[in-house]
């Protein structure tokens, strides 16, 4: 059976919080996550501290993380952030939020879709030069709240263009606003995965606890093997809207994988320690 990849996203969980989490608290929490066996930890971002003040200490955090086989990812939104993040040997992946919504792209990265496409091209050159991977998050991948035209064909077209023109090989389709249902998730991945076999597709689903399992099942049954989550479902994108649902709860994913005899690769003892620590980090 193909091994799944679980990506834990403390960055996504923390980024919208108003009260600043002390740097040492972040370090201790992420170090606990690094013991759990996740494929990747989305630990921080290199964006303007004015935009995301919670993550202004990502450079300090990375310097104090313990050795681990788990890989590390940092979010960037432009060339400057990519250069800063790529300078750290410990960072394995840069993540870039690319939106199929013009309005959300402008609010999230202060760029049009066309400008963002050019930024992706530049970021890809930086990651290639520095032997980093690039994970592209396809924001508004399952719906659009702004009245703009949205369809699975639009998402598919952008995935094809990003792969063929810019050689993007990891695309995390993102439900930024919690709009997805199991039919959309299943049908979209059933189209994307066989249509672009060279691309590793992931599911970054913002959801509520009561529909987490059905969305996870829909993505898995459609062939998705890369899943983002955050303990307790904390977080979401502060650039979307105040009523945004949270991230896919990691513990809910683990329960579903265990129930269906799917190896998650997670050390449950280490995970329980991190789970308890999360209650102190996110009071």
Description:
The protein has 283 residues and is an alpha/beta fold. The chain contains eleven helices and nine strands. The chain has a single domain (5-281), classed as Alpha-Beta Barrel (TIM Barrel), CATH 3.20.20.70. It has helices at residues 10-14, 23-33, 58-63, 79-86, 102-109, 113-129, 152-166, 182-195, 209-221, 250-259, 268-281; strands at 5-8, 40-46, 71-76, 93-99, 133-139, 170-175, 200-207, 226-229, 246-247. α9 links the parallel β7 and β8 (226-229). α8 packs parallel to α9 (209-221). The longest helix has 17 residues, at 113-129. The radius of gyration is 17 Å and the shape is globular.
Summarize the structure.
This protein has helices at residues 10-14, 23-33, 58-63, 79-86, 102-109, 113-129, 152-166, 182-195, 209-221, 250-259, 268-281, and strands spanning 5-8, 40-46, 71-76, 93-99, 133-139, 170-175, 200-207, 226-229, 246-247. It has 283 residues and is α/β, with parallel strands linked by helices. The protein has a single domain, classed as Aldolase class I (TIM Barrel, Alpha-Beta Barrel).
